[in-house]
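Narrative of activities, Objective 1.

The group set out to show that a structural description can be obtained from nothing but a protein's sequence at a throughput compatible with the screening campaign. Below is one input-output pair from the validation batch, recorded exactly as produced.
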Amino acid sequence: MDDPDRSRAAAFFDLDKTILAKSSSFAFARPFYREGLIGRSDVVRSAYAQFVYLASGADHDQMETMREYMSKLVTGWNVEQVQQIVSETLDDIVDPMVFEEAVQLIEEHKAAGNDVIIISSSGTDIVEPIGARLGVDLAIGTQVAIEEGEYTGEILFYAYGPGKADAMRSLAEERGYNLAECYAYSDSHTDLPMLEVVGHPVAVNPDSDLRAVAVERGWPIRDFRKPVALREQSTKRSAIAAGAGVALASVALGLTWYARRRATRA
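Output recorded for this entry:
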């Protein structure tokens, strides 16, 4: 029997170079350095990685290298300290690099009654606050295990490649989304699994490989060019009003999904 709720649709957004003009993880390198979490060499490495990422996008090997690097880097970090740094610096760092076109697109999907979900390889403690600022329904990032208030370095879920598609299928099952009616937006060819799982894939600021695939398959291509200060947008006011509730909902739902995934692996 067909489920009547299967008519629900969602719009899944990658974060970096799709909603934000830069990498969200690398953007916090300087405040992490100021608070003693990373050294000067890590700041330099982050700046170089940011340049490479913006210039050419990241391929599979680079993403795997990034996972190993980030896993080692965050081991032993105090979770509460990281969350406080992100909270205190989020507006100054993120506001100037949000694409106006992405904000408008998010609002269009919300007005159409679609759930809006961010899914990004950046850490969940960065992705969820950004999602709350944008007023999305759910934000999922890479999840690192926590013990006694510190990151262990064990990655429970890497929100990259096939992992994103797995999360989307899981959410579709839980929430009754019809993936054939859903949208997905990304800039990278490494997100092909994410784009291929929905009926409406869109390449945003695509790297050369994704642009070629989009042209070959007739997918829409959108080039976002105008980073703006989110706090100056009227949408920011509504996001702030609902921000606390959205953030709590994102954390609760996100961690529930991570917990189930880990239980399945056990």
